[in-house]
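Good day; I would like, with your permission, to put a structural problem before you. A protein sequence and the structure tokens that stand for its backbone fold form the material at issue. The record follows directly beneath this note:
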Amino acid sequence: MKVCVVGAGAIGGLLAVKLAFAGNTVSVIDRGPHLAAIKNKGLHLHWQDGSTWKGNVKAVEHSADAGEQDLVVLAVKAYDLESVAADIDHLLGDETIVVTVQNGIPWWYFQKEGGSFDGRRLETLDPNGILSDRINPDRIMGCVAYPAAAIAAPGIVEHVEGDRFPVGELDGRETERAKMLCDTIIKAGLKSRVLTDIRAEMWLKAWGSLTFNPISALTHGTMAGICRFPETRRLAVAMMTEAQAIASKLGITFRHTIEQRVEGAEKVGEHKTSMLQDLEAGKPLEIAALVGAILEMGRLTDTPTPVIESVYALIKLLNEQTQARRALDVDQAAIKAA
């Protein structure tokens, strides 16, 4: 299978290496030092058990250099999807499947959903309608990425824990292509299964991303640290309670209790969330998909969300200030260099 992973970061890089090692023809699209390192030395994956994998991948900066694919994995941050969509046609053939592995709620959530909001565009995630216009929902396959991983250095992905990538059609059907995608992931040494309600699984993951990501960025706490500190644990539970009320109005039933979800997060250990990793690296924070979209759903369903709104205000301000300081530092460095 010809596979292109757009964004060879923690999750995208992990998938690219595993899929390549299983015999698929894999291209990755990235930029900057990470892309340069992959071109020069390949893409390396250090697994939790100590094993090391090197993916034989083609590394490019533009989709035109990758060409038409059988499978396209969108593994960039949600805020980069619009620019990816503008250039995605080079990757798409008649039967190309597009898989999304972003954290939080995806832009296509209400496409082919079948409920009272069927077809509605989430303005938080697709404000200009570009994603909805450029990526046909018939191509899309939902996927939930459960592994925790990080970029240890350019060209090197460090696996922390987890290996599950459940998949599902947007309309809940069990199709041949869903089974094929599931089998491809399993043959790559990962775990997968075909779900008839991929949105419920996304909510289960988003439940944690909504809470632990912003709390970790605001406090610099790890997953275990947040769960073991009584005040932040209570804050996480309060946010999850509000999110569960929204999900319930959308017909979602969680298979775990809030306490079970928190206990599962604590077992991840001293792991920095992706948002904390981005903060420390000076990158923009992925706020819209993790928090903003859930607030938008809260408004749609007339669900009060005072705790989530408070955390959203804090994390949004932190992001604004961090990016402003980073821009100032870049300007000052440019002045000194001149």
Notes: The longest helix spans residues 306-337. The chain has two domains: 2-196, 200-327. The chain is about 45% helix and 15% strand. The CA atoms of residues 18 and 188 lie 5 Å apart.
